[in-house]
Amino acid sequence: MIYRANPRVRPLRPLLRLTRDDGRREVFVLPGTGQGAAEWLGWLPPDTAAIDLATDGRSDFVLERVGLRSEASVFAECLRVRPLRAISAFYQRLRRNERRTRDILRGSCGVTPIADFADWARHRARADATPVPAGPAVRLMMPAGPADGERVAATIASLKAQRDTAWRLVVGWSDTGLAVAEDDARIEQHVWAASACLGDFLNDDSALMVLAPGDALDPDALAILVRALAEPDHPQMVYADSRVEGPDPRPALKPDWSPDLALTTAYPGTPTLYAGGLLERLRPRPLGAPDGFALRLGLAAVYHVGFDEVAHVPRVLARAAPPPPDSAERHAAILQTHLTETRRPARVEANPTGFDLLWALPEPPPLASVIIPSRDRLELIRVAADGVLNGTDYPAIELVIVDNGSTDPDVLAHYETLRQDPRVRILSCPGPFNFSAMINAGVAGSRGAVVVLLNNDVAVLREDWLNALVRQACRPEIGAVGAKLLYADGTLQHAGVVVGLGGRAGHILRRRPADTPGMLDRMRVAHEVSAVTAACLAVERAKFDAVGGLDPDAFAVDFNDVDFCLRLNAAGYRTIWTPRAVMAHLESTSRGPAVGAARLRFEQEADRFVERWRDTIRHDPYYHPVLSLTTFGEDLE
Predict the structure, then answer these.
(1) What is the pTM of this model?
(2) Is residue 4 classed exposed, middle or buried when 0-12, 13-18 and 19+ CB atoms within 10 A define those classes?
(3) In 246-288, where does DSSP find H-type helix?
(4) Which tops the pLDDT comparison, 167 or 179?
(5) Measured in whole angstroms, how far is the alpha carbon of residue 6 from the centre of its chain?
(6) What is the spatial distance between Cα 385 and Cα 399, in angstroms, rounded to a whole number?
(7) Which fold has domain 138-323?
(8) How many CA atoms lie within 13 A of 109 on its CB side?
């Protein structure tokens, strides 16, 4: 299928529903239109009776083409591009495992590596023809220095090619005698006055964009961004995706508003449009030195804009000039100054790949209750308990083991040893395994202001893991906090949950190298995600209780953690994943798929999850709508 639609804020992915002859139905979440159009390759069973397409009621949605490929041709393509995958798909086909066959073929033939973005985008590019809303001219500011003449001229050329012609540009040169030859009345050139205030450039309610010499806007950029500012919810800041010029011009496919990520990576970047209302709040701010003005403005906006006042257009609308070599160090210094001036309880701390934002622990540190559900398996609970009690440098710990009917004499003897430690409590929770009920019982029987959910198959790797989680969990605006979990072989097991991945929810970048940077280098810093796994999850008790804890009726075994995080998000709390809390998730590396009754229970819980959170599945705000939901990397659909 090939379809197109104009770019919009918070787009819901289309849904396709297949109905079989026997009445069975299966729903697929399709990719977003991104650069204007999207393509989707899907398996069509021979007993398909009906195909339905849901498009969010968009009047501009156009189905350009529907074609049918033979199964043999898709297998042949898979054999050419991923030979081992083709063998696996053929094996699953012989076993009549339709789901596995379909997923292997789609993951091999229906997705594109992010490195091939240029060709992928070229095939999907469609011009935007939506009318531009009437309003004041957009004001553009561009600080420039002695060596920027050619780059300034290139940026001006891209402005002259804009479909929206209502703009005015001020080029602020760092010294006298600098200018480019230009006779366009919309362009002013002055010496940058560091002592001036932002308000000196704002004489109406026009929006403002800051450009760097060499930035080049797509011809539709201003029109699309101005239209986004005119949305009914009146956003005060709107940004779009970009590509950075250089030897490896990969795209910056940005998430929806992610304040923590914005502080540490300044990811909104070019192009970002600030509305007049937000600029009024920032009016008294001095411009300061031209070097770093865009960054200072962006950091100020983070603290002056409401979470619901920021909009993201998921389309590449600019080629951004490459940052200077010392940009990370400059960013860290400016951020530290900003935190000090605004008295934020955080500090910037260097790490081998850049810097982190380290939030302060309350004083004194609150009691953290670590809740571990367990049954037998001495080799697991011994390692997990020892790591909490003896491998953690946090000063106030309570360990609560919720035992689900252990009968192993060695485990029971180990419990007696653990009880000698006054920090340990062991609660009995017999009966059928219900992870959610066990967690709720453990939290109810604990005393800590912060509760930490921990699997019995998780091992501590760094002493500071609990400090990292509690620092984040104690922030008033933060709900659940998740850790960086590694398989026994050192690859990533958990770096945050994407809602919709695999059709329901899945772990992003699973089985990638532990040092994988991820899109926008976000795997190197704490950032917002939609959900984190309960294998290692911290949350303040008051917030846990406010949403009723985990749901033992709907999600006894699976999806309970994702559902919990989404309910926290709905209550106004953000979910954070931090790379500073590093643990090993040992048992999960060898756990096989559920079969029989366990598989039936999994599918029932999966159906409940999809029904409850369908809109989030169609648009995870922290996962770009053009990225694949079939593979667990950051591939293009």
Answers:
(1) 0.94
(2) middle
(3) 259-265, 276-282
(4) 167
(5) 23
(6) 8
(7) Spore Coat Polysaccharide Biosynthesis Protein SpsA; Chain A (3.90.550)
(8) 24
